Amino acid sequence: MKVAIIGVTGYSGLELIRLLSQHPEVIIQSLHSQSMVHHKISDIYPHLQNCCELMIKEIEPATIMEETDLVFLATPSGVSATLAQPFIEADFPLIDLSGDFRLKTEGSYEKWYGKEAAPIDSILKAEYGLGEERQNSQANFIANPGCYATGALLSLAPLVKAKMIQPDSIIIDGKSGLSGAGKVPSTSSHAVSVMGNMTVYKMNQHQHTPEILQQLQQWNANIEAIQFTTSLIPVTRGILLTIYAKVNEELTEEALVELYTSYYREKAFVRVQPVGVYPDLKQVQGSNYCDIGLAYNSETRLITLVCTLDNLVKGAAGQAVQNLNIMCGFPEELGLINSPVFP
Ligand SMILES: NC(=O)C1=CN([C@@H]2O[C@H](COP(=O)(O)OP(=O)(O)OC[C@H]3O[C@@H](n4cnc5c(N)ncnc54)[C@H](OP(=O)(O)O)[C@@H]3O)[C@@H](O)[C@H]2O)C=CC1
Ligand SMILES: CC(=O)N[C@@H](CCC(=O)OP(=O)(O)O)C(=O)O
Fold first, then answer.
1. Ligand 1 test: best mutation among 16, 17, 33, most atoms within 8 Å of CB?
2. Rounded Cα–Cα distance for residues 153 and 160 (Å)
3. With 90 as the cut, is the pLDDT of residue 223 above it?
4. ipTM more than 0.85?
5. CATH match for 148-311 among 3.30.360.10, 3.20.20.300, 3.30.70.100, 3.40.309.10
6. What percent of the chain has a predicted confidence (pLDDT) above 90?
7. Per-residue pLDDT averaged across 333-340, rounded?
8. Do 148-311 and 2-125 fall under one CATH topology?
9. Exposed, middle or buried by CB within 10 Å (0-12, 13-18, 19+), for 177?
10. I need a surface site. Which of 54, 73, 89, 310 has the fewest CB within 10 A?
11. In the UniProt entry, which residues are flagged as the active site (predicted)?
12. What's the fold here for domain 2-125?
C-alpha cells in the first residue's frame, strides 16, 4: 500500500510519518507541503534522520494518484476542502484529518468554522471516521474526527445508545495540550501565556460542538444540545475530558464499568478502567489508546466520565491509520499497538 501525506510538516503529518513508517503493509511514497517543497523532511525535523529521508514535493494530484494508492490530508480546515476536490472527483482513496467534511448539515460548517464550506455533495460522500463505530466499512473517503470529539463520543456511546442518561444533561469539559493548536504560533500559544497557566478558550463556540452533537443525535434523536467547554493546559500533547450526565435510573459503579467493559470488549484501543480508577495523560501519550474511567454519585445522580487520549494519535494520525486499516481490510490494530511513552 503506497501512500502520500499532504501537510507533512505539521504536527499530525509528522505523526503519520512516525506511525506509517512502522506499519508492515504501508510504504510512504511521497511527502507534500506548501512552503517546504524540495527540502528533505529530516533536514527540517532532525528527529527523522535515518527514519525518513524523503524530499518534500509539490502537490500534483495527478502524479500522486498515479504513484500511490491512498492520500492523507493533514492540512488546515479550509485548505483540505480545496485540495481534496481532484481526489474526490477521481474517487481516489482519501483520509482527511481536518473538519472540512465532518458536518453534514448545510450551513453548519460556515457557522462554526467561519469560512466557506466544501461543496455539499463532497461533504456527503465522506464517511465520519470514528474507528470503533465503523467496522467492515467499504468507504474510501474518510472524514477523520476531531480530537475532542473522538474522546467525547467514545466516552458517551455506551450510555447514549442504552438511553441511560437524560438527553438534556450532557456537560463536556475538555482540556488540551498545546500541539492541538498546530505548529503555527500565536499570542495565546506563546510560552509566556501557556506555561504555568490554564485558560478557557472558544467559550460556547468550539467547532467540535456540532460534530459531537451530530453523532450523538444518530444514537439518540432526543438529544437537542450539549454543553461543551475547552481549556488549554501547559503540556505538549494529550486531552483530558471530564463529562457529566444525569441518569434516568439509579445504578452502581460496578454496573457502569461492566456496561463499558462489555461494550468495548472487542475494541483494542479503548481501555475501560476498573471501578475507582481514573486515567491520566501520561498513560496514553504517544499511543492510539483512549482510556475511560467511570464514577457515579448517588446524591447528584450524575455519572462522571474521565477520558484521556493523545490528540495527535487517537485524536488525529493514529485514528487515521486505524481508518486506513479498516478501509484496506487489514486488522484494525496493524502498526498501531505501540506502548505509550512513560515517563
Ligand atoms: N493538532 C491536532 O491535535 C489535531 C489536528 N487536527 C486537524 O488536522 C489538520 C492538521 O493539523 P496540524 O497537524 O495540527 O496542523 P499544522 O498547522 O501543524 O500543519 C499544517 C500542515 O498543512 C500544511 N499547509 C498549510 N496550508 C497549506 C496549503 N495551503 N496547501 C498545502 N499545505 C498546507 C502545512 O505546510 P507548510 O509547513 O508548508 O506550511 C503543514 O504541513 C488540521 O485540519 C487540524 O484541524 C485534527 C485533530 C487533532
Ligand atoms: C488546543 C487547540 O487549539 N486545539 C484545537 C483542536 C484542533 C482540531 O482538532 O481541529 P479540527 O476540528 O479543525 O480538526 C482546537 O480546539 O481548535
1. 33
2. 9
3. yes
4. yes
5. 3.30.360.10
6. 97
7. 92
8. no
9. buried
10. 89
11. 147
12. Rossmann fold (3.40.50)
